[in-house]
Structure formats: structure tokens, C-alpha cells
Specification:
Radius of gyration: 19 Å
Number of helices: 10
Strand order of the largest sheet: 4-5-6-7-8-9-10-11
Oligomer: single chain
Helix content: 25-40%
Distance between the termini: 18 Å
Low-confidence stretches: none
Structural class: alpha/beta
Largest sheet: 8 strands, parallel
Mean pLDDT: 96
Number of strands: 13
Length: about 325
């Protein structure tokens, strides 16, 4: 196979801020695999939080042998962005060769649209209230928090979107004390889930702590190997393909997590429709779907995913799979 990697930049519709910083564009890697007759694509978003960069992930991908396989990837690359791009590009290539969609090749049911969260980035309470009001028609809003002074933001968003279901993502930004203080207010304000309230290396503090709102492991959960350490701390796991290292492991993690009693959330990094496309298969029937990356962009791929009142739709064959 011929392996080609390009760096692509997509402007964001507005500044996107989380507890770790702000950005105005999404920088992604696009992998193309060609056998001479067919071409498959995959996208990944290298994430500095996990020690990744555009260059390091490019080097990992370009170091792959030309005859690598999906199962062989587990011996060649760790879970992460590089393996995600390679795995998803192989799935796409296999679908093109077979003339069948990936969901059939994977033995899955035909995918349907799924309601997705829409993310409000961290800002002043006034700005977040205005954003909430603008998007109050959406059934599910996700709020980026993660500071010691988040109560006014919570109140402001609830005021701006009184009917929307709200989930919260602290991005490891709270201490155990801050989270314990906020928890009753999360219930009062109708928050249904909180993602990664504590740093991954300090989440042992969740053991024995009351969880009046379901707590979701994000940075603490990458692939199936993460599951044993989550017991007693979390109720939900957030599956992202850039963490699992592709669709293959994401599907396996979903099944393993459900078998162990966890609910499943399917999330994303900020990327284009090409990055979200494989995740729509994992998202089928998930408790929470958060695949709004393309909604945050000012520009997207050709043949982008469709978002409407029914949710995010599965991809067209022209996009992926």
C-alpha cells in the first residue's frame, strides 16, 4: 500500500476554550492508503495532553510497513492518534474494495442518526449565558468548565437554556473539594453527567465519594486496558477514537465496558467530519453522544456529515466507510 499523510487546518467558527487553553483552529492529520485501485482515508487529532504532536504522530504513521493490517496494528502502534488514523483508513479501504459499508463488514446493524451534544466553551458567565440562549433549541448542551469559580457559569447556562439537558466537562480542572462542593448544585441545576472532574492521576479520590450525578471517565479511559482502574470511581466511560487507537478497539471497548456495567459516552476531539464518521458507528445506542466537532468548525470536508433535528447522520460513502 502507498501511505500518504497530510496536515490539514480547519478554522473554528469561534474561539474554543477549555480548562487547559484556547484555540482558533483544528490541526489534524489526514492519512490516505492506496492499493492502486482503491483509496481509504482516516483522520486523527494529535493531542499534547497525551504527549502527541503533528510531527510525532506523522513519524509513527510513516514508520508503518506497507503491508500492515488492522490486527497487526496492535503490535506496531500503541493506542492513540496514529493508530486511529491507520485503523480507520484501513476500514475505509476494505469497504471500498468490498463494495460494502463498514458497518456490514464489522457485523453491525445499519446505523441511524443519533442526537449529539453541542459544546459551549469556557468563558465568562455572561458570554456562556448568551451562547446557551443562542443554542437553547438544542436538546443536549455540554458545558466546558474546570475552574474553582464555576458556579456562576452553571447558573448562567441554565438560565440561558432552561429546557436543554446539560452535561458538564471539567477537563481534569477540579479538586476533590471543589467537586464535592459543586455536586449538589449540579443536581439542582439538572446536570445529568459530569466528565472527568479530577485529574486522571488523582481520581482515586472518587473512591467512596457520593456520585449524585453520573461521573464519566475521559482522560482516565483510553482502551480496554483502562477499565480495571475505573472500578468504583466512574459510572460512564467516554470512548474517543483518538484515545482507543481506532474503530476496532473502540467497538471492543464499548462491548467490554457495557459488559462490566458502565454506560457509554462517545466523544471526539475537535476535528472534521472525517474524524467523526467512524465514531457514528460506535455511537449507536450510546447513553450520550458528543460528536459535534464539525459544528464547531467554520469549514469542513467535502461531503460532510449531516446534522439536523434527528441528530448526526452516518457518513456517505463519499466521505468514509
Amino acid at each position: 500500500m502507498r501511505i500518504d499523510v497530510t496536515r490539514d487546518v480547519f478554522k473554528l467558527a469561534q474561539v474554543f476554550t477549555i480548562a487547559r487553553g484556547s484555540r482558533t483552529e483544528a490541526k489534524v492529520l489526514t492519512l490516505k492508503l492506496s492499493d492502486g485501485d482503491h483509496m481509504g482515508r482516516g483522520e486523527c487529532v494529535p493531542y499534547a495532553r497525551y504527549g502527541e504532536s503533528l510531527q510525532s504522530v506523522t513519524d509513527q504513521i510513516m514508520g508503518l510497513p506497507a503491508d500492515f493490517t488492522r490486527e497487526g496494528l496492535y503490535d506496531l502502534l500503541p493506542a492513540g492518534a496514529a493508530r486511529n488514523a491507520a485503523d480507520c483508513a484501513l476500514w475505509d479501504l476494505e469497504a471500498k474494495r468490498a463494495g460494502q459499508p463498514v458497518w456490514k463488514l464489522a457485523g453491525l446493524k445499519a446505523p441511524r442518526p443519533e442526537i449529539t451534544a453541542y459544546t459551549l466553551s469556557l468563558d465568562t458567565p455572561e458570554a456562556m449565558q448568551a451562547q446557551a440562549a443562542k443554542h437553547a433549541f438544542r436538546p443536549l448542551l455540554k458545558i466546558k468548565l474546570g475552574t474553582p469559580d464555576d458556579m456562576p457559569r452553571l447558573e448562567a447556562v441554565r438560565s440561558g437554556a432552561p429546557k436543554s439537558t446539560i452535561i458538564v466537562d471539567a477537563n481534569e480542572g477540579w479538586s476533590a473539594e471543589v467537586y464535592a462542593d459543586l455536586a449538589p448544585h449540579l443536581v439542582r441545576l439538572g446536570v445529568t453527567l459530569v466528565e472527568q472532574p479530577l485529574p486522571a492521576g488523582e481520581d482515586h479520590a472518587l473512591l467512596g465519594m457520593q456520585r449524585p450525578v453520573h461521573v464519566c471517565a475521559d482522560e482516565s479511559c483510553h482502551d480496554r486496558a483502562s477499565l480495571p482502574d475505573l472500578k468504583g470511581k466512574y459510572d460512564v466511560v467516554n470512548i474517543k477514537l483518538d484515545k482507543t487507537g481506532g474503530l476496532t478497539e473502540a467497538l471492543r471497548l464499548r462491548d467490554a465496558a457495557i459488559a462490566q456495567g458502565y454506560e457509554v459516552m462517545v466523544g471526539c476531539m475537535v476535528g472534521s467530519s472525517l474524524a467523526m464518521a467512524p465514531a457514528t458507528l460506535v455511537a449507536q445506542g450510546a447513553s450520550v453522544v458528543d460528536l459535534d466537532g464539525p459544528l464547531l468548525l467554520a469549514e469542513d470536508r467535502d461531503e460532510p456529515l449531516i446534522f439536523d433535528n434527528a441528530g448526526v447522520h452516518p457518513p456517505s460513502a463519499a466521505l468514509w466507510g
